[in-house]
Amino acid sequence: MRLTEAEMRKMALKARFIRERMNENETGKQRENLKNSRERLALWQKKAAARGSETSFHNRLKMDGLTWEEALRLAGEVETGNEEEKDGEGEWPGELPPYMETVNRMLSGLSVLNPEEWKRESETFWQSHQKSRKDKVPDGNEDMAENSDRDDQDIGREHPSVAAVQAQTGITVLYPLVRTLENQLKKSWGPDEEAFFSEKAVADCSRLLLDAFRKTCSATLTQCFKIFVLRRESMKYLRQMNDTQQIHCLHLFADHLLAGGWKEVFVEFPVLARLLAISAHHWITNMTALAAHYRQNLPQLEKTLNEGQPLGAIQRISGNLGDTHDRGKSVVVLTCESGRQLVYKPRNLLIDSCYTSLLDQLGKRGFPYTLKVPKTVNAGDHGWAQFVKHTSLVSRGEAKAYYQRMGGWLALVYAMGGCDFHDENVIACGAHPVLIDLETVISHGVTIEPQSDQGMQGASVLNLGFLPIWLQESAESWVDRSSLNSSIRESVPVFNGRRELVFDHRQAFLEGFTKAYEFLMKEGSAAICQWAEETVRGKKVPVRFVMRKTWTYAQLQACLASPRCLEDGFLYSAEAERLAAPYLLHSTVAEMTKNWPAFQAECRHLEAGDVPIFGGYADEKGLYDPHDCLVADYFTHTALQRAEQHMKGLNREDLERQTAYIQASLHIRNETTHTAGTAVLRADEKPVKQGGASTDAPDTVHTMAKSNIAAQAVQATPADQADQADQAVFKEASMNICRELRRQMERKKRDSSHSLTYQYNLRNQIIEIAPMRDTLYDGRLGVALLMAACFRATGETEIHTEALKLMNPFCEELKQSLGAVPTDRLPMGTAHGLGGMLLTLVRVGEYLEEPIFFETAERMVRGIPHEAIRKCTTWNWFEGLTGLAHGLLVAAAFLPDGTADELMDNCVERILGAKNQWWDPSTVKKVGQTAAREIPVLRMGMGARSGILQVLIRYNEKRNRPEVEEIIGQGIRAEAALLEELSTKKEAIPLSLCSGIAGMGLMWASLEKCGREEMKHTGRNNMNRIAAILEQYQPLQTDDLCCGNSGVAEWWLTAEGSGKTCRQLLRRRHTHLWNPSLFKGMAGIGYTLLRASEEKSIHSLFF
């Protein structure tokens, strides 16, 4: 089974990447009538220019000297012609690329055995692999063997699952390709090298390649299987296959591929064939180098890593211990005949030995903790390290010592400007956390983007990999990859089979960080200067620079492995060009030209199937990939200068700030964005100290510095005379919050280290610590709205100026989008999406009396494509179409007549059409769901059905549509029944606005304000019931608008115009970080207090 010459030429032509298409000599003779050029060019523009900006994309083309017409030509899908054509049209000109011969060699190997014989061999191969996996699991990691690759382990059982058969099919069809290449590997070894590998070690090498092939092929083979079934059966059969039918089809599919189907796959997906061939070539080269390096370095390895004793031949090899870089290279672990395990690293390990000397020097100066790193042997372009085994704690008391040392590590890595110590780079070895990959213990100062809030996050303890940090795995799943709290067992200490997590030992961890930090404040600068002079400076010490988070590359590689990308080299390259945006946005032409080689290197690495890797030398400013200097003066500071500056910059204020980040990070790891807002009945009241709330809660906001005399005056005033006095105090308190926010914003401008705050991911119920964004819920727009309202109440010009400063960057970004609102990257709702942006624009325009904001809102409404509404599948007020409808309802009063009507109608049509998805509280889509936790369903409030009905009621006051009125009628009956059910239960009732009866109450309030006359009575009756329920409960423990007392106060203001519960908002609360959020922090409390004092001029956010 071989490809013909014509087939190979057509495949090679179709598999070309964009950079190859740019070369006229390689483009070859093509037809003039290129297909789909404009559509494909538009796709390239969308990927490379982030928001699809023509200006940015033109700049991208200029970087490679391309005109628009040339880009249009090379974007075209070449018509490859028919078999009969002999003129060479649509074929690769000249000599074929080398990888095509490897593709043919893999196909030829399939004919050695028939399909049944290959099946038997592959089953034997995988059964031995499963046995070897269990044999090789280190002590303390038994559960990892049980929990990983479950589908693979199910292979061979009497009644395997469909997933197991799918895995087995992948092994069966790939094994023949790998077996052919294994024979080629043996030929590349000399007799001396081959003697060092046992039979099992050779098989292990083959498994590494098989695993790489499975990762690349998985999505494509899944699609090919579906097409295979459809050729024989109907679409209905494919969708409704039972397990028996699916397993039968999988066996037939395997037979098909082994009997010649692989050739069809390679012809249809030439990029897949190319990547497999490149992986095979790299694998042979790297395994050959491993054999040679082991033989050459053996004496030194025995002396340094095996106490002078013989190591013997290599018995086993395990890999996949990290990403592949630099032509398929990755870390592997060797088990030698002596039983000793060694870690082979295909990079220079000079920084590891240098860092060992720094630890020795710090120890001599009195560093409070003994920190361990593995022993190493550096051999230039590669090195060897001691294998660090995960071992359990001897006693639970050792956990304290472990976390003190972990705190010491955090302080040291932070002080030296290091990064990237996530779960894969730390091993819990008894009472010692061992850092096993030291290439990022110091890092260069970056120039890819100006110093900003994002840069500040990178310069804090939050971005080092130690502390809990959420990373997005998919649209519905986030994972924690921190070394302190990962699900990977090796990075967490274990006692008696139980993981000892940092949350149970946070005091020890903070103690370790503080002691180490204080020591480094006194001794660190002298130690690092001595270390630099004696060990690093002038020694060409290589260090890694993390250009982007590895997770970013992993997500991109998953996209690149899609069948669509693997069938066309242009589409593969266009997807990879998503990395271009940071080079193009907010950069001058000179900066783009200077840094463009780094982007080109990223693309080259991805096109070779690798994760891009960059670095430099510790005392130089050049940016390197593994082979070339890409940009000679890329960094602002050398890694050594940056480490010295970090160490000199340690001070008491920074210690307090970093400690606050640590405490906040540990707390929010197990918190969700929405809380039920359950309070205590007044009969069960216990005395609460003034301001008495948990200091750990990020959503308990410290309100403001206020006059205690004013607060006491309110408390001393009789209830029936309190309104006027209350209003004066509420206004003053709100203004104090506004002043505090202004001070914080000004402080942030002077020192960006104060810019980080809580950010709330409502979809996935995750709280992060990050810079503020342009959102209403927890970003700059919410703060701007409060300041604009304060200006309306006071007329202070300084507040007016500050509000404009907050709004102008957002408006400018909208203006630069050339009328096309980036709906592909923004939610629709009020919290973080288009609805909240519209609401902010018109309310700020009204409060500041600035028409420009109304004009911007009109441009925004006209720029929202109707297609985006049709594609939206989220409905709630916070994140979904209901929020956009709410924003349009508010904006309509300030826009030319009819501007928002069509969009509003489309939103409502979509909401009504999806009634089954949001109607029943028991089936409502969860606000968020992650792999790490189970999130409660929101049964009521603005986050659930109540919020949707509230907007529909207000909409229908304007549009009077019978079908909407019918849904409203059904809804109020359902809400009334739910309220009745809650009233009769003995359990506590949720009170909050987002998910409690305060939010439900806003629906009843809208019915009273906007419903038909016969419904207004129902609205008022149920509002009275809610008022009676609220009177029975004590104030909530949090004061925010979304889940706390401000939300309850908002209901009282809407329902009765009363400032009830607003006094509760005057108490002072403490959090680790400042929290300016409108819905979860200070701005929301300030806005509620201002509403209580200026109700006629300051509008509700919900009407």
UniProtKB/TrEMBL annotation:
Biased composition (Basic and acidic residues): 147-156
Transmembrane segments: none
CDD domains attached to this UniProt entry: LanM-like (cd04792)
Stretches the record annotates as Disordered: 123-156
SUPFAM superfamilies: LanC-like
Stretches assigned to the Lantibiotic biosynthesis protein dehydration domain: 269-493
GO biological process assignments: carbohydrate metabolic process; peptide modification
Pfam family, one: DUF4135
Name of the protein in its database record: Lantibiotic modifying enzyme
Biological source species: Anoxynatronum buryatiense
